[in-house]
């Protein structure tokens, strides 16, 4: 039980991303834990809207968030974008949290991995294990569906927020990650968000933007191709639509 976890671990540091899972963890921690601190690690991989959601949710709950600025693009193991990128990125992010949490006197670091997550396909989980990071949602057997339901019951605006992977995942493995490309992707995704789409990806494909929508929205996206082209062209000269969808 999640409540039991917080009773047994009442001085925790939460890696807070503003997503569905970590948002509910913050809510539950504030409710059941005598001491929980939230840490948001701000890097070039997180879009600005995620930071806004972090501040909004923290404001809703009356929680303080410590913001850690991390130059992830200064880490060659990350920017080289090889198969173990996520491992090095996660280790850098939670290493930064651990350093500040230690200074703040927090004994346990937690993250939002839930029981639905396939940890066998997430290299970053190895880094979390090495750092001793715990995942209360997973340990409590709470799936993504459970977390959404509980978040809705708690009145959290994040309850139906689409799952979001960092901007680095938009760049093909082996292609060096640069701030310039990340900014282009972020601006392109902001432009499509402004058109009313909410669950999609703009992936870099050579010099083009490859757009992935949910299968049920591919036809709608195709019918609005002129709007999408106008929105994306300032950032990518070529725009492709993935007909398979996400």
Q: How many beta-strand segments?
A: 7
The fraction of residues in strands falls at 5-15%
The CATH topology assignment of the largest domain is Rossmann fold
Query: End-to-end span in angstroms?
Result: 33 Å
Sequence of strands across the biggest β-sheet = 3-2-1-4
CATH homologous superfamily (4th level) name of the largest domain: HUPs
Compute the number of helices: 11
Broad CATH class of the largest domain: Alpha Beta
* Class derived from helix and strand content: alpha/beta
Uncertain segments of ≥5 residues (pLDDT<50)? none
CA-based gyration radius: 19 Å
Name the helicity range. 40-55%
How many separate domains? 2
Task: Spell the H/E element sequence.
Answer: HEHEHEHHEHHHHEEHHE
Averaged pLDDT, please? 94
Shape field: globular
- Largest sheet descriptor: 4 strands, parallel
């Amino acid at each position: 039980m999640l409540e039991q976890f917080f009773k047994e671990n009442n001085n925790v540091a939460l890696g807070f991303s503003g997503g569905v899972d970590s948002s509910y963890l913050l809510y539950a921690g504030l409710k059941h834990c005598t001491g929980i601190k939230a840490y948001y690690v701000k890097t070039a991989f997180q879009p600005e809207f995620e930071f806004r959601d972090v501040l909004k949710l923290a404001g809703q709950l009356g929680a303080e968030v410590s913001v850690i600025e991390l130059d992830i693009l200064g880490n060659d193991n990350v920017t080289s974008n090889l198969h173990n990128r996520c491992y090095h990125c996660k280790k850098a992010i939670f290493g930064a949290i651990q350093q500040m949490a230690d200074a703040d006197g927090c004994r346990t670091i937690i993250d939002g991995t839930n029981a639905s997550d396939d940890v066998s396909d997430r290299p970053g989980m190895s880094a979390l294990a090495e750092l001793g990071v715990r995942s209360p949602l997973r340990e409590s057997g709470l799936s993504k569906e459970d977390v959404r339901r509980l978040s809705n019951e708690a009145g959290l605006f994040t309850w139906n927020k689409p799952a979001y992977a960092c901007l680095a995942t938009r760049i093909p493995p082996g292609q060096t990650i640069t701030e310039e490309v990340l900014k282009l992707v972020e601006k392109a995704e902001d432009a499509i968000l402004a058109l009313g789409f909410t669950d999609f990806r703009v992936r870099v494909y050579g010099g083009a933007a490859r757009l992935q929508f949910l299968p049920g929205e591919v036809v709608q996206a195709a019918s609005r191709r002129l709007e999408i082209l106008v929105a994306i062209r300032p950032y990518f000269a070529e725009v492709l639509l993935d007909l398979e969808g996400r």
